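I am writing to request your help with a piece of structural work I have in hand. What I wish to show you is a protein chain and, alongside it, a tokenised description of its three-dimensional fold. Could you please explain, in whatever detail you think fit, how the structure tokens follow from the sequence? You will find the record immediately after this paragraph.
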Amino acid sequence: MPAQRVSATTQTTREIQVKARRYLLGVVLALRCVAAAAGVADVDNGSDSPTEQYAADRMQRSISENINSAARWIDSFFDDDRYIAEDATTKLRFGESAFLEYGESPEYKTKVNLSIDIPHTKKRLRVFIANEDDTNKTPDTLFNRVETSEDTSAAGVQFFAKASNKQNLSLTAGVKLESIEFFIGPRYRYTLKLDSWQLRFTQRVRWFSSKGWEATTRFDFEHLLSDKLFFRQTLDGRWREEDDGYRYEIRPTLIQQVASGQLIEYQWNTLFKTSPNHRLESSILRVRYRRNFLRKWLFYEIDPQLAFRNDEGFDPKAGITFQVDVVFGGKGFLKRHEQAAGETGQLETPANNPD
């Protein structure tokens, strides 16, 4: 019997690996087609002329700056946790969302998040009241049903020891309001230029008074395909003292600006867990359409998805999320959004971003 179980487990693992390779091959081929359509071409570096080398260096710096600028603007537009975690401005966000999935009851969520920049601290200190999942992000998407998220609120303070395009270091301390659980820990982000790519490494460690230690690690490989196409490959993982094993996610994402104030995000989330055995937990194909409408502080989203989950035999299950966000404040966010919504309709670049 043990031999039969090992054989069955091995067979299942091989099937999952074959499916994963096919998914990855499809994504790579699709991205190559998109890059070709967008006019992405190799650069001829055959000349060793000092003048041409200097021009190439300037071009390389410009490309690197464009990648970083586009990444920051995209994160601010989607109000992504990469942006929220480093935004020291005063901001109030109110959101209503509904998730519908085939064969399941509708799920509704209301979020009210407030962040206040403390005066005379040069944007180094802020206090916040937010949903716990906004201060304790996991690799999961908003509604992927891989595991139940804690719908609680938290309040705390965040101190920024260093804040620049290259590095960001902060310390956060707070308390969950429902369970009265205290937490504290640092967050560090480092950005590295790699030719025409950009690597962002983010590490966060937290201690919770009732759950113990938690560590999350994320690598973002980013590339600007054209003035309207941006690619990001994300690898992130999480370890918790109270959990067995490690969980990690591989997430390729393609972001397209279809018009001024309108972005579409094509995403494939693949989640793995190492306990009780190393296995594929879920794979979710998701399209996220976000648009600014009527007012510069008003947004709506429509996010259809197709999920394949281990506990459901990897049978496909369709779902869709509807979301409306109201965002007040956040000077950096509003300035970047107004610039990106100009006549060019292009992703933000250093030429129109004084930051």
Summary: The first strand starts at residue 91 and ends at 101. Confidence is low (pLDDT under 50) at residues 34-61, 134-149, 340-345, 349-355. The longest helix spans residues 2-37. The two ends are 64 Å apart (CA to CA).
